[in-house]
Specification:
Blueprint: E1 7-8, H1 10-42, H2 45-53, H3 57-65, H4 75-98, H5 103-135, H6 138-168, H7 172-195, E2 198-199, H8 213-222, H9 224-259, H10 265-286, H11 292-311, H12 316-343, H13 350-378, H14 381-403, H15 406-412
Antiparallel strand pairs: 1-2
Helix pairs in contact: 1-2, 1-5, 1-6, 1-7, 2-9, 2-13, 3-5, 3-13, 4-5, 4-7, 5-6, 5-13, 6-10, 6-12, 8-9, 9-10, 9-12, 9-13, 9-14, 10-12, 11-12, 11-14, 13-14
Length: about 425
């Protein structure tokens, strides 16, 4: 079913950005608290990796099962329902921790909430992608997607910083309580975004920022095989960048312990550095300082070099700087893949392809988190970072060898 895009008001866009920001603050605040608490309770990097993987694996399986429904129903109503689930999960963790539950019960609650989060995040991306694609012109949709990702990274930095402050004073329960309130605020924001009045759009003018969705769409209609090839390329090269970030977040916990033993402050600093790097990446992309084509050509190889740098140093300042820059580089690639996911497929298949791409990304994240925990436990931190460098380097050389195509370059606006 074809939907006619209407231009939503500027106020609607601002409320939608507020939703992304509040949700990202909540997600990172809770994730940092869960990762730190699970490591302190278990003293085992494998358990930490499994906890991180639980935030992705169920979403992969359930997302594929219900992917055909991703393009049906009212997107805003679906977003409201899923955010009620997030609010309930954070409230449960607050009660479990405040009740001083045994470590086994606390870890089980962490795993259950992470599993529910994985499915909700998958569906939220599909529903928000439909909301943006159907409600805004192509050029505005690209900019809104870039701004939302950038703002989400900024929110993540705030969430990581807040977690560091609260963990520093031992207030783990307040991390979860604050998360619940933030999810509630995000729910209100998305409802306001939907209720904002629409503005008539007489003659939408597509500007040159980002992928030219309409033009590429026409070319895909004339050449279906080329369009399918582009979609397959998006799926294949989403795998290494999507997996790299949870790999880093899993290894960051024992890395922080090796640099600053017994303190949650340095882990919080790394978390903030990672989110700050993501914010810088989003700013560079949305402002036009970085092109999508440049990111696709250089992100993996640059990331490999930075991972080697982290592997060979334990000087705190150097670790923070390298972690920040590596997060920025990888996040730029993830953001380009997200924009292409929203703009490459036909409009009536956006939700379905988003779910499929998120399933691929979720599988990468799950596997990367588990492998990261195992590598640290079995071979040590240095081997883990070198393994990440090897994967990124292989992906970078592969892109130059077989990943690039004329259709992809036209989609990202390469000269």
């Amino acid at each position: 079913m074809k939907h006619e895009a209407t231009a939503r008001s500027v106020r609607s866009g601002r409320w939608l950005l507020a939703f992304f920001c509040a949700s990202s603050v909540a997600e990172i605040l809770q994730a940092v608290a869960i990762m730190w608490a699970s490591y302190r309770l278990s003293h085992n990097a494998v358990v930490t990796g499994a906890m991180n993987a639980a935030a992705y694996l169920p979403g992969v399986v359930l997302g594929l099962i219900v992917r055909k429904r991703a393009d049906s129903g009212d997107a805003v109503h679906r977003l409201s329902l899923t955010n009620w689930v997030l609010f309930a999960g954070s409230s449960l963790l607050t009660l479990v921790w405040m009740a001083h539950s045994p470590p086994g019960l606390a870890l089980a609650a962490f795993a259950a909430v992470q599993c529910s989060l994985s499915f909700v995040k998958t569906m939220n991306k599909a529903h928000s992608g439909r909301f943006i694609r159907q409600g805004y012109s192509a050029s505005d949709a690209v900019r809104l997607r870039q701004r939302s990702t950038s703002l989400a990274q900024a929110g993540g930095a705030v969430g990581g910083g807040a977690a560091g402050v609260l963990l520093g004073i031992g207030a783990v329960g307040w991390c979860f309580a604050t998360t619940a309130l933030l999810y509630l605020a995000g729910l209100l924001a998305v409802r306001r975004a939907a209720s904002s009045p629409h503005e008539a759009e007489d003659a939408p003018v597509a500007r040159s920022a980002g992928p030219a969705a309409a033009t590429s769409g026409e070319k895909r209609e004339r050449n279906p095989s080329a369009g399918s090839r582009v979609l397959r390329t998006i799926l294949v090269y989403s795998f290494p960048s999507s997996g790299a970030l949870p790999f880093m977040s899993t290894v960051a916990v024992p890395l922080a312990q090796s640099v600053s033993p017994g303190s949650g402050d340095f882990y919080a600093v790394l978390s903030v550095a990672g989110m700050a790097g993501g914010f810088l990446a989003g700013t560079a992309l949305s402002s036009g300082r970085l092109s999508s084509d440049l990111v696709l050509r250089t992100a993996f190889l640059g990331g490999a070099a930075l991972a080697v740098g982290i592997a060979v140093t334990r000087w705190p300042a150097a670790v923070v700087v390298l972690f920040l820059v590596l997060s920025a580089v990888i996040t730029t690639h993830v953001m380009v893949m997200q924009v292409l996911t929203n703009q490459a497929p036909p409009e009536d298949q956006v939700g379905r392809f988003t779910v499929v791409r998120n399933a691929v990304a979720g599988a990468a994240k799950c596997g990367a988190a588990l492998v990261a925990g195992w590598l640290v436990q079995a071979l040590g931190l240095t081997a883990a970072w070198l393994a990440l460098a090897l994967v990124l380097g292989a992906a970078g050389f592969s892109w130059w060898g077989v990943g690039r195509s004329r259709e992809m370059e036209e989609l990202v606006g390469a000269n």
